[in-house]
Amino acid sequence: MEIKAAELPLDANGNVYHLNLQPEELAEKIILVGDPERVPFFSQGFDRIETKRKNREIVTHTGLWKGKRISVISTGMGTDNIDIVLNELDALVNIDLKKRRPKEKHTSLELVRIGTSGILQGDIPLHTWIAGRYAIGMDSLLHFYRHPALAPEEVVRDFTAQTEWGSDFPQPYAVSADAALWEKISEGCLPGITLTAPGFYGPQCRVLRLDTAQGDFIRRLQGRSCLGLPYANLEMETAGLYGMAQLLGHRALSISVGIANRVTGAFSENYRDAIMALFEHVMKHI
């Protein structure tokens, strides 16, 4: 069945609407970042840049890094943007955009998110590379899609029990990282459980002028672990990335540099070297 234009909008040049890309401008190995400025920061080390595209907060550079064809793409912040980017990346490789029909042969992308995050345990140092073996979504993105269980149900049960999660908040969901990418890339990282929040302030227990309704669930997670993994970090994209990747048949892993310890209050004002070192580590193994 043909996919209607209102369901999959294309621009006047036939590019997918938000990414502003054609299929041949995308590599099958993709680094995802939040900050658009991080795209040229990483691509400055490319042997050659083939494609540069920009639309709103989404910036794409595709080229060669030591002979590997790679795309670096910024998603902006939040799982709402992850929903847009993942669906359009999938459309580029698995939908014939001219015929507006899914292709018979499925292409699976490798997606590695390199980001920054808050640290949830007081004994984890700043600049630690934290790899999310599981991610818990405190947003509601995946509830808009039909899906099977994407991680052991124990992860959600333990999280809701430890945090005394309120029944009038979005029901958390848990998703696992891709096992093959985990084996290739996670060595040298702290393995843990990543929490994905739908905002930066209240949803992450930050209090400026407004009190939070859920209270300080970070305090309730101190010293806690599940399936042998600590509740390690808190950010805004990983659970959506893991969930959308699994549902669409792609492989995803998220690794963050911890830049704010939410327990001790320490914050790193200069983490560029740690981010670049993580990028180089990922590129050696992807």
What is the structure about, briefly put?
With 286 residues, this protein is an alpha/beta fold. The protein contains 7 helices and 13 strands. Helix 2 packs parallel to helix 6.
Detailed description of the structure:
Helix content is 24%, strand content 29%. The chain has 286 residues and is α/β, with parallel strands linked by helices. The strands form two sheets. The protein has a five-stranded mixed barrel with strand order 7-12-10-8-13, surrounded by four helices. The chain has a two-stranded antiparallel sheet with strand order 5-6. The model has no long low-confidence stretch (mean pLDDT 97). The two termini are 35 Å apart.
Secondary-structure topology with pairs:
Layout: E1 29-33, H1 38-43, E2 48-55, E3 58-65, E4 68-74, H2 79-94, E5 95-96, E6 101-102, E7 110-119, E8 129-137, H3 153-163, E9 173-176, H4 179-185, E10 190-196, H5 217-220, E11 225-226, E12 229-235, H6 238-248, E13 251-261, H7 272-285
CATH class of the largest domain: Alpha Beta
**Care to count the β-strands?**
13
The CATH topology of the largest domain turns out to be Rossmann fold
Helix content: 10-25%
Mean pLDDT: 97
Strand order of the largest sheet: 7-12-10-8-13
Q: What is the overall silhouette? A: globular
**What is the number of independent domains?**
2
Radius of gyration: 19 Å
Number of helices: 7
The fourth-level CATH homologous superfamily of the largest domain is Nucleoside phosphorylase domain
Biggest beta sheet attributes:
5 strands, mixed, barrel
Portion in beta strands: 25-35%
